[in-house]
Structure formats: structure tokens, C-alpha cells
Specification:
single chain; 191 residues; alpha/beta; Spore Coat Polysaccharide Biosynthesis Protein SpsA, Chain A; 4-stranded mixed beta sheet; two-stranded antiparallel sheet; 7 helices; 8 strands; 31% helix; 21% strand; globular
């Protein structure tokens, strides 16, 4: 996209505001994990949203280490046992999809993640706080990818067939990665 997706706007609204509008009704608390350089700007941009909804903006503990650091920081900051982690560029997240993932947990689960088209979706998944030691271990080994520690935890995979009864379930996992994808988001009738 040529810039920080955190500040990407979709019409009159930031993309992150669209994500928040869809996830906040599902959870008691919402955190946005950001690099320290983005903290002040995002706090200002979301000032009115934060007056209406309980949103905490938390800077990465160790900036510059990618999505895995964001996950680890969120697991350190949450007040609950579980966190639903989603990318700031996924504005079409669906509550029904979130429920399918949540309901797939077992007592042993540490990560609940969907597999679509043969690929895991780590930035649209649930993580137990018990994942934190493995995530930090992966970071110490130089990893940046969220999936890098999955071998060290109990992973519950929700297969695509489990979502098929939900109309448009794949859109929930869609991120905005190009100007064309953003244009289609703003104009759903475009091919």
C-alpha cells in the first residue's frame, strides 16, 4: 500500500475504525498494538471513538520486531485469558466467523486458527495468554512471523468446511493489501 496501513482511510473513516466497529461489540476490551512512533497520532485520530468505546492503544514492548512482537505485547497487556488477534487491514471481519473460532476451543487449546485454501490465518485467530512464553522464545530466536511458534503450543485448526454455512465467510479473512483492494472495499460492485 506504500505506507502504514494503521492510518489508511476508507472514505471518511480510517480502516482501523471499521475493524473496531465490527469487533468491539464482541469483546469486553479492545486493544490496538502499535509501534511507539504511531501511538500519539493514533490516539489523536481515535479520540472521539475512544470516548464512546473502551479502546486501549498499547505500544510494542520491543518495536521493530513485526507482527509476532505485536502478538506478544497484546498477550502481556490483556486482562483476560484469551485474545482475538486481527490485522488492522481486515475491515470485513464477521461476528459469526469469530463465534465459530471461539466455539472450536478445547480445554487444551492455546491457539484457535482457521485454515483456508490450505493456509493458516494467524491474524484472524484466538490466542491464549499461555502462548506468551513460546512467542517470546521465538522472538528471541529472531522470528517475526506469528506462526513461528505454533509447533510449541496446542493449535486447534478450524477447517474451511466449518465456515461454509456462513454466507461470505471468506470476506472476514480479507485484508487490504493493494489500492485496488481498497477501491473494491469502498465500491463492492466493482469486479
Amino acid at each position: 500500500m506504500g505506507g502504514n496501513k494503521l492510518f489508511l482511510s476508507a472514505g471518511e473513516t480510517l480502516l482501523i475504525e471499521r475493524v473496531l466497529g465490527r469487533v468491539m461489540p464482541c469483546f469486553q476490551e479492545t486493544l490496538i498494538i502499535v509501534g511507539p512512533d504511531d501511538l500519539y497520532s493514533l490516539e489523536k485520530l481515535l479520540e472521539s471513538t475512544r470516548r464512546c468505546y473502551p479502546v486501549r492503544i498499547v505500544p510494542d514492548s520491543e518495536p521493530g520486531k513485526g507482527p509476532l512482537e505485536g502478538l506478544a505485547t497484546s498477550l502481556e497487556a490483556i486482562k483476560t485469558q484469551w485474545a482475538f488477534v486481527i490485522g488492522c487491514d481486515m475491515p470485513l471481519v464477521q461476528e459469526a466467523v469469530i463465534r465459530v473460532l471461539w466455539n472450536a476451543r478445547t480445554p487444551e487449546s492455546q491457539v484457535v486458527c482457521a485454515r483456508l485454501g490450505g493456509f493458516l490465518e494467524p491474524l484472524h485467530a484466538f490466542y491464549s495468554a499461555s502462548c506468551l512464553p513460546e512467542a517470546r522464545k521465538a522472538l528471541a530466536a529472531g522470528e517475526r512471523r506469528v506462526k513461528s511458534f505454533f509447533d510449541g503450543v496446542v493449535l486447534t485448526v478450524v477447517e474451511e468446511e466449518d465456515f461454509r454455512s456462513l454466507p461470505g465467510y471468506r470476506r472476514s479473512f480479507s485484508g487490504v493489501n493493494t489500492p485496488g483492494e481498497l477501491l473494491r472495499l469502498l465500491n463492492p460492485g466493482l469486479p
